[in-house]
Amino acid sequence: MITLVDFGHENHVALEGALDRLGYTHCRAADPDRAAPAGPVVLAGAGPLAQACVDLKARGWWRELPHLVAEGRPLLGVNLGLHLLAEGSEECPKGAGLGLVPGIVRRLGPGARTPHWGWTQVQACRPHPMLPDWRGGWLFFAHSYALEPCTETLAVAVHGRPFSAMECRGRTVGLQARLERSGAPGLDLLARFLEAMGAEPEPGRGN
Amino acid sequence: MDAKWVIPALTLSCGRVAVPDGADPSRLLDPARPAPWAWVLEREGADGVLFRERSPGEPGARCVWIRAAAAALGVPMALEARFQGWADLAAMLEAGADRVFLAPSGALEDPLLVPGVRAFGRDRVGAALDVRLEGEGRWRVGEGSAARDALEWMDELEQRGAGALLVRVEPEGAAPPLFLAAARLSLTVLFQTAAAPALAAEALLHGADGVVYPAQACPAHQVKTALVSHGLPMRQPWTRETV
């Protein structure tokens, strides 16, 4: 069972539709007590970071997510979710991030259209056990800020400047791309990440 | 590298797709339901789907069709509509629309833009506008005493936080220089055409980020085939079948 962190800043309908098509069972959890006992936890979000931090704290997730990661629970951060996992962000300079993925989130540009709302070519930086044969592809992005790439970055894209499109630290994965809105290639990637995180589609579900 | 958008649009009335005379509805069993359309359009290579709502219908039913279409789609979904208020706008985004475009009105001002951007972010709220050419290089928006220079208004929409603009131009042949002039904007600018979408190449070459066209006109992969011959970047692959 996949747990979707419900903190009021996500388009759950799109993500749930993608998980349904892939055949995964899932539940929304407004607080950690409602999380499934096992399986990946997905922190997906969009919109202003400051309010997202406030709501994540108010619902108990801010404190709980590091514990879950320490226990070995797979965690997938998507879009704003990746920004929350990082150490900090220019969008909210007074507050620290969860620090589960190293690096700082910085504003895109200058000279690039912001928000970056578009289909952009993503390049794999290095082979990774989760995506052994993936070289890159076109994925959908909707964001104004992005994590700075580093030597550990899984994949990068360029919009005004290079930015991290995918990060992986242990069983914690961060995606800037909206895979659930990236067509069939995005759905395929999402399935591969979830499979690598131990999720199994339910036989007979999905299409 | 960013690809140019090719976005088929469907016009809806009370949650039902308005299929125009002469359109070929053979692609669907029920050509009035939005969700199956969304599914088909994605498979035909759409980079996103825009629903243009002419009559909203009952609020609960509205959320139902938006949720169904949003769940069926694997590419971004946008909604152009007039919203009754803050709760209405929020409900549509929470129902699964990735982005809303506030429909244009003669008065231009939309009190929902700024609070919408503040709550949901620039990437989820945009504005639509109807631009008309009045004389050499004079683009105007709005009606009567509210009418004003289109480029100034586009600047102002950007300053107010709009994350994207959906622009109709009358006459459409005047579109390329308008998009060239609008290239200084730092937000996404989409050209909405009522004509053959392949003719949008000039607007795209002059700076528009994408073309929005009536979905019933032709499949998106045909539009892309025409546009790529002009050297315009398109995302690959175009259709689900080629993955």
Tell me what you see in this structure.
The complex is a heterodimer of chains A (207) and B (243). Chain A is of the alpha/beta class and 207 residues long. Chain A has a single domain (2-196), classed as Rossmann fold (3-Layer(aba) Sandwich). In chain A, 25% of the residues lie in helices and 30% in strands. Chain A contains five helices and twelve strands. Chain A has helices spanning 12-22, 49-58, 61-70, 80-85, 183-196; strands at residues 2-5, 26-29, 41-45, 75-79, 88-89, 104-107, 116-124, 136-143, 145-147, 155-159, 161-169, 172-175. In chain A, a hairpin with a 2-residue loop joins strand 11 (161-169) and strand 12 (172-175). The longest helix of chain A has 14 residues, at 183-196. The radius of gyration of chain A is 16 Å and the shape is globular. The model of chain A has no long low-confidence stretch (mean pLDDT 95). Chain B has 243 residues and is an alpha/beta fold. Chain B has one domain (5-242): Alpha-Beta Barrel (TIM Barrel), CATH 3.20.20. In chain B, 30% of the residues lie in helices and 24% in strands. Chain B has helices spanning 34-43, 59-72, 86-94, 113-120, 150-160, 175-181, 201-205, 220-228, and strands at residues 5-13, 16-17, 49-55, 77-81, 99-102, 125-133, 139-141, 148-149, 164-170, 188-192, 210-214. Chain B has an eight-stranded parallel barrel, surrounded by five helices. In chain B, helix 1 packs parallel to helix 2 (59-72). The longest helix of chain B is centred in the N-terminal third of the chain and has 14 residues, at 59-72. In chain B, 49% of the residues are buried. The interface between A and B is large, with 40 and 39 residues.
Helical residues, percent of chain A: 10-25%
CATH-derived topology of chain A: Rossmann fold
What integer value in Å does the Rg of chain B equal?
Answer: 17 Å
Gross geometry of chain A = globular
Distance between the termini of chain A: 18 Å
| Unreliable residue stretches of chain B | none
CATH class of chain A: Alpha Beta
Query: What is the overall shape of chain B?
Result: globular
